[in-house]
């Protein structure tokens, strides 16, 4: 049984390094995408402050479909190129949105969300989906979060290969 220990950290990079170690331990030895996505979302949601949604959208071959997450119920399908998630998927770039109300085309699932970060998930050239985290705090995510979330997303992607 995995037990998430409180991570002692004086800085965001330290917090993400501790979280990365926990994520590797949690996903170790399991390749099932739904199982790992569910546990990964739960781990991150409970470890990071000021988060109101953390989860996955997976590419079904045509669009993004919501996967395992923590938080309020979310929009089910997002077209490629739409919203922050669809933009991350087509640009292949992590989207750090300081103010969701200033992002043209932002899709509001939880009206409490004020800022958002979305990391695209690719296996080589193949779009797998996106990892999406929302915050009720304006400008919650910065470059440290970008690096940390990309590190975590890489651990999730590696886990699928066993
Ligand atoms: N805000 C996202 C939609 C997903 S929810 O935040 C969970 C977007 O604009 O793509």
Walk me through what this model shows.
There is one protein chain. This protein has 162 residues and is an alpha+beta fold. It has one domain: Beta-Lactamase (2-Layer Sandwich), CATH 3.30.450.40. The protein has four helices and six strands. It has a six-stranded antiparallel beta sheet with strand order 3-2-1-6-5-4, sandwiched between helices. Helix 1 packs antiparallel against helix 2 (33-47) and helix 1 packs parallel to helix 4 (143-159). Methionine sulfoxide (SME) is lined by residues 53, 74-75, 78, 83-85, 106-107, 109, 113, 116, 132, 134. Methionine sulfoxide binds at residues 53, 74-75, 78, 83-85, 106-107, 109, 113, 116, 132, 134.
Summarize the structure.
The chain is of the alpha+beta class and 162 residues long. 35% of the residues lie in helices and 24% in strands. The chain has four helices and six strands; from the N terminus they run ααβββαβββα.
Low-confidence stretches: none
Number of helices: 4
CATH homologous superfamily descriptor: GAF domain
Percent of residues in helices: 25-40%
Mean pLDDT: 95
Record the strand order, biggest sheet: 3-2-1-6-5-4
Number of E-type strands? 6
The name of the CATH topology is Beta-Lactamase
CATH class: Alpha Beta
Please tell me how large the radius of gyration is. 15 Å
> Could you tell me how far the N terminus lies from the C terminus, measured between alpha carbons in angstroms?
19 Å
The tally of domains stands at 1
> Largest sheet, described in full?
6 strands, antiparallel
Q: Work out the strand percent.
A: 15-25%
The class by helix and strand makeup works out as: alpha+beta
The CATH architecture designation is 2-Layer Sandwich
Shape: globular
Which ions and ligands are bound to the chains? methionine sulfoxide
Helix and strand succession? HHEEEHEEEH
């Amino acid at each position: 049984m995995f037990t998430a220990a409180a991570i002692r950290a004086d800085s965001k990079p330290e917090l993400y390094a501790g979280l990365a170690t926990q994520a590797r331990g949690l996903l170790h030895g399991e390749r099932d995408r739904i199982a790992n996505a569910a546990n990964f979302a739960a781990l991150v949601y409970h470890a990071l402050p000021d988060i109101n949604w953390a989860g996955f959208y997976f590419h079904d071959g045509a669009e993004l479909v919501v996967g395992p997450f923590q938080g309020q119920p979310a929009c089910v399908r997002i077209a490629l190129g739409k919203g922050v998630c669809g933009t991350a998927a087509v640009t292949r770039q992590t989207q750090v949105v300081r103010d969701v109300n200033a992002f043209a085309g932002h899709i509001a699932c939880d009206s409490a969300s004020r800022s958002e970060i979305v990391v695209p998930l690719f296996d080589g050239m193949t779009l797998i989906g996106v990892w999406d985290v929302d915050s009720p705090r304006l400008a919650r995510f910065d470059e440290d979060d970008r690096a940390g979330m990309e590190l975590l997303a890489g651990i999730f992607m590696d886990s699928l290969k066993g």
